[in-house]
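ok so dumb question maybe but i'm new to this and my supervisor (M.) told me to 'just get the structure for PH domain leucine-rich repeat-containing protein phosphatase 2' and walked off. so i did the thing. is this what she meant?? sequence i used:
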Amino acid sequence: MTLCQQRNIKRNGSRGCVTRKTRFGSRERDWLKGDTQRGCVCLYGGTVDPQPPASGPQASSTPQTDLQLVLCSTSTTVEELCAQRDGQGLYVQLHGDLVRRLDAAERPLQIVYDYLAALGYSDPTRVQQEAANSDLSCLIRFYSERPVNADQQERTLLKGVFSVRKGKSQLHKWAERQVILCGTCLIVASVKDSLTGKMHILPLVGGKVEEVKRRQHCLMFSSAGYQAQTYFVNFDTLVDYQRWHRQASKVVSQTICLVDLSCYSLEAVPEYLFYCQDITHLNLRHNFMSLQGPGGLIDVLFSQLKSLNLSHNRLGLFPECVCEILTLTELNLACNSLDIIPVQIGNLQSLQTLSLDGNHLSSLPEELGGLNQLNGLGLSFNNFSHISAVLERLSAVDKLAMAGNRVECLDLCTLAKMSHLKNIDLRLNGLRCVKAENTEAVSQVTQLDLRDNCLDSLDLSSICNLETLHCQRNQLGTLTLSGFTLRMLNASSNRLTTVNIYPVPNQLTHMDLSQNLLEYLPDWVCDCRKIEMLDVTQNLLFELPSRLLNSLSLRKLLAGNNHLERVPDLLDHIPLEVLDLQHNKLAELPESLFYKALNLKYLNVSANVLAMIPPSSQSEESLSTLQELYLTRNNLNENCSALLVGHQNLRILHIAYNQLFSFPASKLSKMEMLEELNLSGNKLKTIPSTVSSCKRLHTLIAHSNHITVFPEILNLPEIKLVDLSCNELTEIQLPESLPATLQELDLTGNSSLMLEHKTLNVFSHITTLKLDQKSTTTPGDSLSASTPWNHGYSEMSGQRNKLCVSVLAVDRFGDGVEACYGIFDGDRNEEVPRLLQCTMGDVLCEELQHSSVDSVYMCNTFLTSHRKLGMAGQKLGSSALLCYIHHEPSDPGGCFSLTVANVGTCQAVLCRDGRPVPLSKVYSLESCREEMERVKLSKAIITEDNKVSGVTCCSRLLGCSYLSPWVLPKPWVHTEPLCSQDEFLILGNRALFERVSFQEAVCTVQDVRDPRAAAKKLCSLAQSYGCKDNIEAVVVSLHISEDSCTCEPPASSTDPRVPPHILAPVPVTVTPGPSDPATLSCSSGAVSEFNSETSASEVGSEAGSTASDEHPSSGHVARPERRCSLHPATTLCLFQRQPSSATFSNQSDNGLDSDDEAPLEGVISNGSKLEVEVDIHCCAFQLRSASDSPKDFDLEKRGSDYPNGKMCRQNSVVVSATNGCLLAVCGREIADLKKSPSTSSLFGKKLSNGSVVAPEDSHNLIEVALEAPKKKSGYFTAPAQQDPEDQLILPPGLEQEVREQLRSQTTLVSAPPLPSLPPAFKDTPELKWDTFVCLNM
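this is what came out, is it supposed to look like this??
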């Protein structure tokens, strides 16, 4: 088995997946050649459950023996396939959901082609290839017979032959009888193994099922009522006993005679169900019920049936037979593609509720108006262009549900005639006008919903009793209402400059006018006597009326993102509880704010220019109830801390990005209720030891300061998260034991931090430990050109218990100077983002081999990743954003281009000349009108919160395939040429850009030189602005010149706060100490994140280079300038060997399960020795110059990937001394290794969500070797322990040339003497071309 197949097994969790693909042989390939209308269909047997229980998406779906490969064409029908196979029929299953029988004339291969085209595939050849991929079975699958689902079968019907006794009297004898549990009844046949005789039916609803203790595996079934009957049934096995007991208990516990057969893939009603004549409620939702035939809807004539649900059955025609069930009071026919309602609907005089949503109706029959008892009528998401006159006669209907239709004009005269209508829902109709000319008062309407239409003005003053109005997301410039009974007004996201309401709405309690163009608040707002909540966020307000803030009813005021320069003074005590004034121009707050607003619990004044905050009280005793205080991004200094002490109930304090040089210890000790403290972005050098007094503190965020001493927080009993990144820590004083609650510790960006092995051992239980990857560099490292970009990222879980976002970041992607960055947001799930992070980079590499057209390879990358999600992608989904920096294929030496693709709500913005340039498209129903129309045309039900089927607000996602065709994986693709004016790129998820605008994000990053610190600042700002969700940000710093030259000018000065991977680092030569291989000498580098499952020895070897007790050399050596492909640096070659400092056992330390791995070709393991075959002369790698040089290894990057990494080249051989371990790789293997993000960057440490750490972070060399693609020409070695007798072995033909090159470089690099070749080697001609490098383990 090839290593590539082993990697597939690792991801899919089943060798069956690989084996099934081997069925596709030369015969099948010959069949596909030359005609894209040819293909093959994978047929699965029906003897197993199509979706077996599994722990994750990697579980195998079906044993291999159930798979057959059938060659066919797009014109091949089901009838022809069945005749060829002597089969009875074919079934199709979409997304692991329902199974439908195919009609004889349907064409299976064409169904697959149409499905793939709907997903987004456009190339016929690619469609043909995808259709032949067996992995597609998680999206669409064919069965040769109906698959058996044990759970559904058990819910539908239980039957068997058991010993039965009737009645409680002992006089009755036990007899073998067939027993059936179906619907709501227990059916007992009078003759064994036959249903020809009399059937005894026992209704169970309201009855009892009890265990008979004196007899093993025996149940007593009793009906309800005065003349209750009893049957004893003795089961043969414990399994049967438990199944029957479980199902019968559900039936008897029902309060009504309800039979739920929804989502069963039924084509007919089970025949035994007709014995249950007591059924009153029958749910057949989401099936494939037929109108005719045995068990069809024509037979559903239960005499007592009151409720019938036939929604989502693809009926196409209204089942007229239903109109004969005169007892019906509730009928649901939603989503059945109905075009017309028959006149027989008038027979259902008892009907009270009729749901016809999601069909193609454009008119209603007159007979419908005769249903006098009808009080609920659902007509949403149909094709009505006007309000039907039939509704005038339906006097009992009080709600008009017509959302998602095509009503473009609403005439209030029509509403006036329907005096019974109180609630009108006309969302998503494309309304353009509301006519109110010559209209009498419309007095009956109390609730009106006009959201998401195209209205530019609205006058509803004639609706005099209106209580609730929703008109958000229109284009309203003016709004006029009657205020007699108005209680709630929501008019956000419009263009309102004024709102006219007369008379003053004294009943108004909630009003949302956010995201409009209001420059002032109308006077009537201050006169509202009962207003409790007012939202005027994101307007153009310059002042707030004094009477408003002094209102005796207002409890919540949101006035952020305006132009307020002052807040009026408070004249008296007010009941205000929530006050949000962020993003204004406030220089001060009212002096009496805190002791006049004694109920104030939440205050957010972030992003202002405050220099001081008001006192909490006028005396020493404070009555403040403030619990959350956000002061981020102001001009506050340490003097404000004395004023915070009075808020003794404070739980959350954000005072980040101010001018704090210190935080008084005496003040901090008094804040005993504090739970979350954010001090980031100040100038603190220490956090007072009195922080230990905050016993409830669970989150401390203090990154981007000048802190040198680790605070005394590890003794706090509830501490969960500590972020001290981007500081100046040098050491950590640890207590005897750490609190069990500590889950995340971030120490990245502390260039001088020294961590000993015992410290790492103490940290081993922490779920997520983030450290810098330490590395040393040499002057020879300049032989590889560095990339013209570098990145940093940050993730915050917020108030969630888990992190549902992931990052993919590869600064050196593929063969040339390229990069790949991506973010994935799973909203409520963490599985899909993690899978995308691990696979999407590899998929992009593969797609780049097939096409050079940006829209093609990006689109196919998303579609293939969607398929690779497997079973996890059936019910779960994720937003995704992928950015690929590259040269145009037509001009490899020209300018760089940035190709961006996205689905969902993740966004990318480029900073060009200090201005934001949006590069992505938000695929949400609220922000994209085209997608809203597409989803409406496909007859999806959009709920009031603008979610597809109430699940997601996104119209395009990776995963959530069960929502197809409403939610698709096809991405938006855009390519932007990069130029020298492009400074950086920002990637963020929905939570980030909902709180931080593009312009603010750009200004924020411009103020911070370090991309990692900039990303952290963005996330901290979003949290301080009120975000409670998962936040994710990636910042990519760009250094691109006019001619795409990436040379870096020498740095004139260094900022100690900027990590050395941004400025020129100080290379340190580390001498390994054999006596203490775990002692760490830490220098700066890339971040590494450790999972608690990692052992201390692993952490020690991966966190940094090893050193002896002697201090490493601290001589400052200037880093060579970064050189580009246009101006290459002088090539240096050297051979250097270091003894290993890491100890590797025979156990699997690389995170891979070695039990299911076949032995790797070329790697021979024998006890403690590992031999790796190296074919030197077959290596294709050459030292390149000019434009080829970017394809070489980037030693600056590899220095961060491999601790103590030193690399040297000679005659097509690359040798890397990594922690003293020799790596010999041929050129083609290097190319393959660099092309695979999963091997170059994704195998290593884990993020806090359990996913793998992104690029440039350390990864174990064994993991690289095991995961790299194998070819015939070369192999990878693995690290080994030091061996004093280890020598570098060279072929005789290369010895002289190596010596000459080393001699020519002696003035630049001091290299160890070349070891002499053993005589045995010189005398062995067979080893001239191949040699073995033996490493002692």
